[in-house]
Structure formats: structure tokens, C-alpha cells
Amino acid sequence: MPLLLNAQDYRAAARRLLPKALFEYIDRGAEDENALRRLRDVLDAVHLVPTVLTGHGERNLQAEVLGHKISMPVIIAPTALAGMVSHNGEIKIARAAERIGIPACISTQSVTTVEEIRAGAPAANLWFQLYLWKDRSLSRALLERVQKAGVDTLVVTADTPTGPKREYNQRNGFAIPIKYSARLGIDVATHPRWLAGVLMRYILTTGMPTYGHYPEEFRSSVTRAQLAERVKLENLLNWNDIHELRRWWKGKLIIKGVLSVEDAELAHAAGAEGIVVSSHDARNLDILPAPIEVLPQIADRLGDKLEIIADSGIQRGSDVVKYVASGAKAVMIGRLPLWGLAAGGETGADNLLSMLRNEIDLTLTMLGRKTPYECKTSATHS
Questions:
Q1: GO terms for CC (predicted)?
Q2: Active site residue 243
């Protein structure tokens, strides 16, 4: 395998090793992917101001988020079907996060259950991402399981009222649930390492991968249709639902997908402790602003009332510092750990997270700053 020195190296390795349909499901955006391209353009246009001759011998990358000290201002974002990237991928990511000292957020649509992830990473700081089901009693039962597994932070995804338009998935024959096709079959067959190391390992041990958090009576493999009305994702989610959820979820509550001051204020009024300023990594709607464009206004207005996390487009440690300098307490990363996982399994995830930490440290060193929270941007984002 070639030397992996940056995020794009890991991405290229993941592209070689994963079936095209799965790689593009992880990697690409929505519609014409203008928002995905703008994420990079906008982040690249943000500059940070150095201070020279500071004589700092070491940096402090630690952050405190929702009362927990973490080793750097980074959180693993929830990603659906991470367990399809590598066998037991969700457990591997949780262990990598545990070792480096940051939280990992588990998706409602993970392959592995929260109980199995907890058993595999007993000391990890696990968060849980929720897509509410139509049947609220089933969602409540799921969250009781989540709490029993020692999770105290719930992240509600608020920006996906319907499925996005991702035309490449249709061209690749990729859908959730997965549908057999000649094109997809050839794609899988031409990636034998993934076929043998991931899919066949599931089939020979636990069977075809499933959505692990669905209730037993509705659980099906990812190749079968989810037809039960009770476990369809709620497409009419509103702030009254968040108020109700706040009444019966006893842990910390975060709303993910906020891009306006008004919605940040509504999240605070609903009793949320935090928000994620996010465009869903440009995967949902192609006309959204880059989160770092709206982050400063939201942080100025609500930064003393809410824990403000941000995500989307992060590829370098300097991107993390840019988000923090713009008002975020921490950032979430989604694609990066998946690229690391695909490129090298658990070791790949470890190495990518270490690389990111080293890049943050290098950025601070060159800026003459001791912590990311001392950094300042040079101009208004354009």
C-alpha cells in the first residue's frame, strides 16, 4: 500500500479498496455537488492570524464539551452503515476514538448495536444519533437501551425530512435497502478484498448485515425492504417533538443540522444543551451555505447558552482550527474516519486520527498559539 500522509491519500486508498457504489455513497454530495465543492472553497478562503516569538514549548489541544474533557476538539460523527466499510467497523471506530480520547457518536442506522459497541469499547465516550421513528414508543424503547449502555449524550438529526437526490447512487445501483443488480454484482466481485474481508465475514458469522438498532420484529438485512410503517423515519419532525423528547430523555441533548440563528434559539428554548452547525457534509441539499459562513453569527448570539459544535468539509487539522477560531467548541468528522477504516481497518482509523491531531498541533505551533481557542480569523468569510 502506498504511503498515506494526508486525508486525500486515505481517500484514494479507500476508493481502491471499496466497491464503487459504497465508496461514492460515503464520499459524494447531492444533486450537482455544488455545495460539496463550496465547502472546500469557503474553508480555503478562511485565513488565521499568527502571533510570532511566543516561545511556546508545547500546545494544549484539550477541549471540554458538555462537561467532558477530551484530548482534542474533535468528535466522531454518526455515519450510517459504517460497519459495511470494515467488518465490525463501528466497534473499530469506537476503539480508535477511545484510545485517542475523543467521543464517538453511533448512528441509529449502524450495523452493530450500541450494546455490542459498548462491549467492544468499554471505556469509550459514546454518543448516540437518533432518527425518530413514526412509532414513538419504539424510539423510546431504543433510547432506554442506549441509556443502559452508558450513553448520556443524544444527537437528534434535524435536517433530513426526506431522502436527498443522489443520482450517482441510482447509476451505481446502490440503495438502502440494497438491491441486487448485475452492475452491483460486478462492482462487488471486482473488489475481492472487501468481498472476502467484510461481506463474506458477516455472511459466514452473523449473516447478512442488518440495521442493528431496529426492533427485533422489524429487523431485516440491508438487502431487504423496510416496509413496516412503525419504523419508518419521521418525516414530520418538529419542535414540539423536541420538547417532548427533552421531557423523557434524561441525558444531554444536541440538535444536528442547524444553520441559522433563529433555529439555534429554538433549540435553546427546547432545552437542548448543544447544536451542530452542519450542512450534513453537503450530502442532503445542494444550495446550502457552508457551515463556517454562518457559524460566527450563531456563536456570537448563542455561544454562552449552547455548546456549539460544527462539521462539514474537514480534511486537515487546520480546518479544525478554523472552525474553532470561528466559534465552535469542537467539530465532528464523518468521512475521515471512514476513509481511515477502509484504507487500513482499525489501525487505519488510529493512524488517521493521530495524523489529524498532529496537524492540529503543527497548525498551532506555526500560529504561535497554545490552544485552538486562542486562534483568530483574519477576515469575514466570503
A1: plasma membrane
A2: no
Tell whether 330 is in a known binding site: no
- Strand, helix or coil for residue 46: coil
**What's residue 382's pLDDT?**
45
283 is in an annotated binding site: yes
User: The cell 478484498 sits on which residue?
Assistant: 193
Amino acid at 309: I
Taking only the tens place, the pLDDT of each residue in 262-309 is 999 999 999 999 999 999 999 999 999 999 999 999 999 999 999 999
Please state, in angstroms and rounded to a whole number, the distance separating the CA atoms of residues 275 and 55: 36
Q: Is 260 annotated as a binding residue?
A: no
In the chain, the domains with their CATH numbers are 7-125+163-232+319-374 (3.20.20.70)
Per-residue pLDDT, averaged over 125-151, amounts to 94
> For residues 31, 36, 38 and 40, what is the CA-based torsion angle, rounded to 10 degrees?
-170
- Measured distance CA(327)–CA(313) in Å, rounded: 16
Share of the chain above pLDDT 90, in %: 79
Whole-number average pLDDT of the chain:
92
Residue 8 phi, psi dihedral angles, 5° rounding: -70, -30
User: In the chain, where do the E strands start and end?
Assistant: 63-65, 68-70, 74-76, 104-106, 126-130, 153-157, 252-258, 274-277, 307-311, 330-333
Between the two ends of the chain, the Cα-to-Cα distance in Å is 39
Interstrand relation of 307-311 and 330-333 (parallel, antiparallel or unpaired): parallel
Q: Please, what's the b/e burial string for 279-299 (b: 16 or more CB within 10 A of its CB; e: otherwise)?
A: bbbbbbbbebbbbbbbbbebb
Check 87, 191, 280, 381 and give the catalytic one: 280
Number of Cβ within a 10 Å radius of residue 373 = 14
Residue 256 is assigned to a ligand binding site: yes
- Residue 175 marked in a binding site: no
